[in-house]
Amino acid sequence: MFRGLAMLYMIVGHMITWWPVPEEKLILMVSYISVLSTLGAVGFTFISGISTMISYRNRLIKIDKIENYSMSQVKYEYLFRAVFIVILGLIYNIFVAIMFMDISQIWTWFILLTLGICLLMSWPLLKMSKKFRLFFGALIWIVNQILLVLLTPFEGQFNLYGVLYHILYNTIDQNIILSFFTLFLIGTVIGDIIYDFSLIYNDLEKRKAVKKKLLRPSLLIGTILIIIGFYFLLPLLFTEEMLSVKSNIWWLMYSLGIEVILISVFITIDVYELFKLEKSYRFLYYFSYYSLTVFLIQNINYFFFYQSLNLYNIWIFILITVIIYGLFLRFSYSKWGPKLSLKIQIGRLASEATKRIMNKSRDI
What we know:
Elements: H1 2-18, H2 22-36, H3 41-65, H4 71-100, H5 111-122, H6 130-151, H7 160-169, H8 177-198, H9 203-233, H10 249-272, H11 282-289, H12 291-297, H13 313-335, H14 342-363
């Protein structure tokens, strides 16, 4: 549900960027970002951190259960997957650079590149304690704000500081790495907590643990982050400054608070079995299952109604488009299953590359 919501936000956000007539584009973008921006790339990065840690912990368990499966294999599978996503992100960026005839776009923090680099950077930290990852993530946000202030005057300059600015902050309204890596890292902490719950087989004990160790702390910490972030963010809401808000530490705090509370509520609903969600969230499940595939495919939307819709009829076409995507993904799931899931295929490719390396090592 969480990843599906994040993917839907990004799809709709791109349509709002591409389809409105120029004179109405600004008000649509600013309003959409002001109200729902915490669900997009922020949520996708956060949930990716959660799923990464759960996957990592599952692989550690396999070391003791599967013969010839070692920590080296876990490492290679992880790093190959990260590298393949980085390569995919760079290929995507190259197409964007060619389309807009701007070579600087080759290194832009679109979500694929951000996610791949987050995976690479997080590997040495996965073994660290949850407290260390929280502290390190907070420290990165502080360093990020300092670097942003120091390097911004050198934007566009061909010198050491200008190149460093380009590496870290091109473009400022995208998913810049030092801001989003903290979200990913905190996601790994939540993933650790969730995985620990999965090891509790007694339903009553699991519910007590979720309530005590996840829901209550998340509601407290999340509420504090939301209040602080919203207080300082309030003057920016529904203004043009919201378009570059992803570098704003108050927006990041506000967004993190919402993400932490949302995931905690979802987990609590699941553990307490408050609702039967299997059918109701299936629509979002397809957007999650094919998340990377959908992110690439949805770029064709750019050409459908480019700068031709107004403030009102755009929502009709957006609704129709989302429904068509949902039906297509449902059909793909029943017809082709994982074959069309780029996320799963990258995982398989990483496993195959790892096997070849491990076999060569054994031969030597």
